[in-house]
Specification:
Layout lengths: L2 H16 L3 E5 L1 H4 L3 H13 L15 E6 L2 E10 L17 E8 L4
Parallel strand pairs: 1-4
Antiparallel strand pairs: 2-3, 3-4
Length: 109
Amino acid sequence: MSSDKARIRALNDDLRQHLLGGGAVMTPGIAALGPEALLRLVQTIATFDDFCIENDPHNEHDFGAFDFDGVRVFFKIDYYDKDLKAGSPDPADPSVTERVITLMLAEEY
């Protein structure tokens, strides 16, 4: 594996596990679950480890899907430039990348 892929994965894990190094957004469906569910959902994402070729083909830990309180939930990490106007020129470099994790119900995709 390239060192860039390993660095991207580590940065994504920091965001997913500790909410460090980026931002987070949620869809209206996630917000409607309420604050207690949101706290449990964030904890579930932090400990998520079911990465496989189907949901993580680039080995970046940037996507996950799981069942939560009877609904299917996705999380996705995207890489933007620092102005959040375009894609990052180098997702392995945090000085030029703003990571954003999005939490959504599968039905909202």
